[in-house]
Write a structure and sequence with these properties.
single chain, about 200 residues, mainly alpha, 7 helices, transmembrane, Ferric oxidoreductase domain-containing protein, Fe3_Rdtase_TM_dom, membrane
């Protein structure tokens, strides 16, 4: 890959990541919010950005971080994703415990809450499988398929959750980020032939 192409890919990715964050930072809705609530909101935005990075790293699409390095970064990005979700939910808990309890019990009147909770538990399930993959003695094929199923739930739930919220994220940049996360996830599933009898790289 040429240096120019690599530069353009990284510059495009940086733009995709930075624009939604800057747009959210300029939102007038932040003026009357508590610092904890603002931090929780931006942790949620960070989680959406990480959802875009995860399939890009898993598929080796980013220049200079393919192969083993890409898989290691995929792991660390997953850890950051779990941390971002904990900060997101934890911050919302501090500002309004009843709302978080209602969301966790699926009795919140806001539809986006249920989708966010589903995505959250799918993230935790994926992290659990990754942490105890060898202890559970999962075959490579079963591991890939379970991980992929959870990833699909995570991305779908997170995208619906984000799109239904009318908050600090700017509408068009949020929609673009969500669309790219879905596209990247679909592409890596197709390219790695997850559902084939013998997935790529499986002996």
């Amino acid at each position: 890959m040429s240096r120019l192409r690599a530069f353009l890919i990284w510059a495009g990715l940086a733009t995709i990541v930075v624009v939604p964050i800057l747009a959210a930072a300029a939102s007038p809705l932040l003026q009357w919010r508590q610092p904890v609530y603002i931090a929780a909101g931006f942790a949620g935005i960070a989680a959406m950005v990480l959802l875009l990075l995860q399939p890009l790293l898993a598929g080796g699409y980013l220049p200079g971080v393919s192969g083993l390095r890409g898989r290691r970064l995929h792991l660390w990005t997953g850890i950051l994703l779990v941390s971002a979700i904990i900060l997101h939910v934890g911050g919302l808990w501090i500002t309004s415990p009843p709302d978080v309890i209602d969301a966790l019990l699926f009795r919140s009147p806001t539809p986006f809450s249920a989708w966010g909770v589903i995505a959250m538990w799918a993230v935790f399930a994926a992290a659990f499988l990754a942490a105890f993959r060898w202890s559970l003695a999962l075959s490579p094929r079963l591991w890939r398929r379970l991980h992929t199923l959870l990833a699909m739930v995570i991305v779908a739930g997170s995208v619906v959750h984000a799109l239904l919220i009318e908050g600090t994220m700017e509408t068009y940049s949020k929609a673009a980020l969500c669309a790219l996360a879905v596209a990247a996830t679909v592409k890596v599933i197709v390219d790695l032939r997850i559902w084939a009898r013998r997935s790529r790289g499986e002996s």
